[in-house]
Amino acid sequence: MRRITAGLFIALDGVVENPQDWHFPYYNDEMGVAVDAQLGSADTLLLGRKTYDSFAGAWPEREQAGGPDAEFGRKLGDARKVVVSTQELTFTWRNSERLRGDLIAGATALKQESGGDIGISGSVSVVRALLGAGLIDELHLLVHPIAVRSGLRLFDDADTPLPLTLLRSTAFRTGVVHSVYGPGQALQGEYEQAKLHLPHERN
User: In whole numbers, what is the pLDDT of the chain averaged over residues?
Assistant: First the structure.
């Protein structure tokens, strides 16, 4: 079964909105490698409409311009792009299509197809829904050492917690921490158990 990986630029306070306003000073070669490994290696992209519109408005021109980002633009252009939208869409970027029907059912069907990873970038509402359904195999959070203090946060209010498992974590020279999470299980325990691990003198 194919994996779904999601990548987001996120501030210390959980803000993921408008990362172009605050994350570029932290973008270095380490982050470039991480983004390419998660998104550039996927042969299918699953994107919310707003994220897709942003990508489609920038990456085809960057690819055509032939600059240092043209190769990444080519990868995105060559990938199959499945757009989550309730509206009919007209596409000008190659290999683009609209996801038909229910998001969870559609994502489940994509995972069962043959092929490589399915990559998500941004697309917060899509990530939230797929996390809740247990369909995201790897959640890549590039945590920036800044509190933006306003804007949309990744996790919204809900009645139940969402446990995750830390798969790996790497600190970049800029102070950005790349943490990768997978599905987790809720842990049980109270203070009576926790206090056993407090520092204490041994006789």
Answer: 96
Burial 98-120 (b: 16+ CB within 10 A, else e): bbeeebeebbeebeeeeeebbbb
Which residues, 6+ apart, have CB-to-CB distance to 94 below 8 Å? Answer: 77, 78
Count of C-beta atoms within a 10 Å radius of residue 154: 18
Per-residue pLDDT at 93 exceeds 90 = yes
Tokens of 34: 């991480």
Q: Is the pLDDT of residue 9 over 90?
A: yes
Q: Say how many C-beta atoms besides its own lie within 10 A of residue 176's C-beta.
A: 23
Alpha-carbon separation of residue 103 from 21, 77, 81 (angstroms): 29, 23, 14
Q: 3-state DSSP call for residue 44?
A: strand
The residues, any chain, with a CB within 8 Å of residue 68's CB and separated by 6 or more, are none
Half-sphere CA count of 104, side-chain side, radius 13 A: 8
Strands ordered across the beta sheet of 164-171:
96-98, 80-84, 44-48, 118-121, 4-11, 138-144, 177-183, 164-171
Residue owning tokens 């990444």: 72
Residue 203 clears pLDDT 70, i.e. is over it: no
Q: Is the pLDDT of residue 202 over 80?
A: no
List, for residues 118-139, the tens digit of each pLDDT value. Answer: 999 999 999 999 999 999 999 9
For residue 36, give Cα distances in angstroms to 51, 58, 73, 105, 109: 17, 17, 11, 27, 25
Residue 91 sits at the vertex; the CA angle it makes with 135 and 47, to the nearest 5 degrees, is 20
